[in-house]
Amino acid sequence: MRARALAARKRKAYRAPTNGKGPSLQQSDRAGLLFALAGFCTLSLGDAIVKGMAGEWPAPAMAATRYVVGTALLALMLARSEGLPALALPRDGLQWLRGIAISSSAVGMFLAVWIMPLAEATTIAFTQPMITAVLAMIFLGERARPSTWLATLAAFVGVFIVLRPSFDTAGWGVLFPLMGATGMAVAIIANRAVHGRASILTMQYYMSVTAMIALILATATGHASGVESFAMHWPHWSVVARCAFIGLSATLAQWLIYMGTAKAGAGTIAPMTYGQLLMAVALGWTFFGDAPDAVAMLGAAIIVGAGLYLWWAARRREVRG
After folding, report:
1. How many other CB atoms sit within 10 Å of the CB of residue 318?
2. Domains identified in the chain, total number
3. Which range marks the domain in which residue 176 is found?
4. Is residue 56 part of a domain?
5. Is residue 16 part of a domain?
6. How far is CA 52 from CA 133, 200, 240, 247, in A?
């Protein structure tokens, strides 16, 4: 009797969704936000390792090695789960766009953390939520709202403030984190566009294998260009080992970000990148002595504030709607 009463109370407390579409939006949002936060924070670990390898190997080669390792791991998992035919390259152009976008983001951030303090490079990369919101309006048909444009304008004001102390030493290279941010934004939008076309594991494999191919081609092109910093050579074994570790951690991070996008939507998870800033500041200060100055902190506060305002405006619309 006691067991039946307990079961009855559980049934009463639980209310199944009535729309036939699974968990409520609120539950899905919470899960998506946590997935995305974990993914973006994990990326900071890889960025710190990359910064410690500045100049030891060309950036495209490091990024390619990272994706070779990640692709091999995903291929083993996918073959075991869905069979060898699942390892075929995707034919969908959007899948290739995902890979090219994420590979561009990786190279941009590799170069950025080499020439700039880790926290400043990461701060500028935090324009990604605003770029994502603008791209969502253009390509996903999301409504153009004043809050989006206001947040985007404020974010780029913050970028210019952060760039001022860095531009004299790094030159136009300070734009590399914007390249990383744009690539990540395009990847998030493409993730949303292709959601549901294959299993989650297959989608992650598609992104990794297409990024690997793009980066191998970029490495070969850089070597053929004759530019000394892109010339290939056999590195110390520790460089390869660190790239392999970055590959494993980045694969985990991208899976978490993809899950966040799928569960909560591109615009909803965008502010979760700010957990990455805290991680980047801590790692840069601890291991590289890169204590952020007052000007950089002001710019970072404006960028973070713009992203949080964008998130708050979206939440407010949901409550009203």
Report:
1. 12
2. 1
3. 30-265+272-320
4. yes
5. no
6. 33, 32, 13, 16
Query: Helix H segments across the chain?
Result: 2-13, 25-51, 59-82, 93-115, 118-125, 128-139, 146-170, 176-194, 200-224, 237-264, 266-269, 274-288, 294-320
Q: Residue 262, SS3?
A: helix
The separation between CA 164 and the C-alpha centre of its own chain, rounded to angstroms, equals 25
- Using alpha carbons only, how large is the chain's radius of gyration in Å? 21
pLDDT digits 0-9 by tens, 158-217: 888 887 656 666 667 778 988 999 999 999 899 988 988 999 899 989 999 999 999 999
DSSP string, 167-211: HHHHGGGGGHHHHHHHHHHHHHHHHHHHTTSS-HHHHHHHHHHHH
Residue 1 lies in a domain: no
Cα distances from 57 to residues 50, 234, 279, in angstroms, run 10, 8, 25
Going by C-alpha positions, the residue among 206, 251, 212, 253 that lies closest to residue 94 is 206
d(CA 42, CA 114): 19
Contact of 118 with 290, CB cutoff 8 Å:
yes
Amino acid sitting at position 226: G
10 domain residue, yes or no:
no
**Which pTM value belongs to this model?**
0.75
Q: Which residues contact 77 (CB under 8 A, 6 or more apart)?
A: 201
pLDDT tens digits for range 72-96: 999 999 999 999 999 999 999 999 9
